[in-house]
Amino acid sequence: MHLVPDGVMPPYPAAMTETRFHALPDDRIVAYRFTPGTGPALVFLPGYMSDMAGGKATAVFDAARARGRACLLLDYSGCGESPGLFEHGSLSLWKDEVLSLIAALELEQVVLVGSSMGGWLMLLVALAAPAKVTGLIGIAAAPDFTDWGVAQMDKALLADGETVWEDNPYGPEPTPTHPLFWADGQANLLLDAEIPIDCPVHLLHGQCDPDVPWELSLQLEQALRSGDVQVTLIKDGDHRLSRPEDIALLLGTVDAMLAALTGKA
């Protein structure tokens, strides 16, 4: 394992396609991949219990590398290749990990691409670093899902310190909601007030999404203060939006946003 102290990055080759590790001051370790390039750096934020090996993250990284653009992928602590326990994770901790990596890699401007829970996390990162975040792209963004996505009886169990387990349609193991994550999510709710983010935002959402209602992207569009918010609804799209045509739409959305930000078609 190659550990890199916080704020100290070794010289990297033309593209760091292999996994590296970044250490935070409290000894948390975050796995990441980075390819340098021009323009604002793309930072892909995976969803709940997802990682940087997913199809959308890999597609964004490979396209950025082919086009000579900077791109950062990461696994939150306790996820993917990052050590730690998932049950110790929270939005606030993972937000700090994203910000720490952005600072350590000296990325001056970033465009955050957030999938599902990553769409909530991208909003929290943008609120914490408005001078650095120049654009947001949400894929079935799920802000506040600890509130609207958790039954009232389960909230009572979580408030009592119990873990709630649900059927997982994407794998054999049930999906846990741990008390720490739920409580931190409830402390970071955003949709009940104006969200003071002013950068361009593009939200992609499938209208056959069984996990995150597509109407939530319309609600988020209304809550954002930015005057430049676009919502694209995919009539037959599911939650993951990982079909070839969905990936093509995502990459086209990335291209369009970067072109608008840099003035290059």
List the keywords:
265 residues, alpha/beta, Rossmann fold, 9-stranded mixed beta sheet, two-stranded antiparallel ribbon, 8 helices, 24% strand, globular, disordered N terminus
Name the CATH superfamily assignment: Alpha/Beta hydrolase fold, catalytic domain
* Secondary-structure arrangement, i.e. CATH architecture: 3-Layer(aba) Sandwich
Beta-strand content:
15-25%
Strands ordered across the widest β-sheet: 1-2-3-5-4-6-7-10-11
Low-confidence stretches: 1-15
User: Regarding CATH, which class?
Assistant: Alpha Beta
For the secondary structure, the number of strands is 11
Count of structural domains: 1
**Overall residue-averaged pLDDT value:** 93
N-C termini distance: 41 Å
* CATH third-tier fold name: Rossmann fold
Largest sheet: 9 strands, mixed
Helix content: 25-40%
Rg, nearest Å: 18 Å
Structural class: alpha/beta
| Morphology | globular
Encode the helix/strand succession as letters. Answer: EEEEHEHEHEHHEEHEHEH
Organism: Novosphingobium colocasiae
GO molecular function: hydrolase activity, hydrolyzing O-glycosyl compounds; mycophenolic acid acyl-glucuronide esterase activity; palmitoyl-(protein) hydrolase activity
Catalytic activity: mycophenolic acid O-acyl-beta-D-glucuronide + H2O = mycophenolate + D-glucuronate + H(+); S-hexadecanoyl-L-cysteinyl-[protein] + H2O = L-cysteinyl-[protein] + hexadecanoate + H(+)
Protein name: Palmitoyl-protein thioesterase ABHD10, mitochondrial
